[in-house]
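Q: what sequence does this backbone want?
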């Protein structure tokens, strides 16, 4: 199946797909949380969708990247830092972050679960690199910064 772009040039369209629970991908260990790539940009032709589960206190340091990102909280309380503000998201909350926004999040008491979506391909490759190269028990922030740089990730190390 093909589609036509705005210039009338035929392009291959992504194929429909379904990810049943018994065929869910292996979760990647990323900065203390488990991230499953439900839909990569390679499969959708653009956006990516992830399932994220984290224990209490886990989550990334303040960072920014060149893709929009949205989170829908399924379980638990998750604190989101956006620029200088902090917000607590409960189940049913959607948090949208435009590309370039400085943000972080922390899973609250008892941990949490959310679905996230990015506006373009990239995060799935970066998370795979993190899973392969960074210890989930004792993450090396320097290595994370190095691995994220080719994807446009900017990490802002914690003060002190």
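A:
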């Amino acid at each position: 199946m093909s589609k036509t772009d705005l210039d009338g040039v035929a392009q291959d369209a992504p194929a429909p797909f379904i990810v049943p629970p018994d065929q869910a991908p292996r979760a990647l260990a990323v900065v203390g949380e488990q991230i499953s790539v439900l839909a990569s940009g390679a499969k959708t032709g653009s956006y990516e969708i992830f399932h994220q589960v984290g224990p209490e206190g886990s989550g990334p340091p303040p960072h920014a990247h060149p893709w929009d990102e949205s989170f829908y909280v399924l379980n638990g309380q998750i604190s989101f830092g956006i620029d200088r503000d902090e917000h607590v998201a409960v189940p049913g909350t959607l948090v949208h972050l435009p590309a370039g926004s400085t943000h972080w999040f922390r899973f609250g008491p008892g941990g949490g679960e959310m679905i996230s979506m990015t506006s373009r391909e990239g995060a799935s490759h970066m998370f795979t690199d993190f899973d392969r190269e960074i210890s989930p028990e004792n993450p090396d922030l320097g290595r994370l910064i190095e691995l994220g740089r080719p994807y446009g990730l900017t990490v802002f190390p914690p003060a002190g």
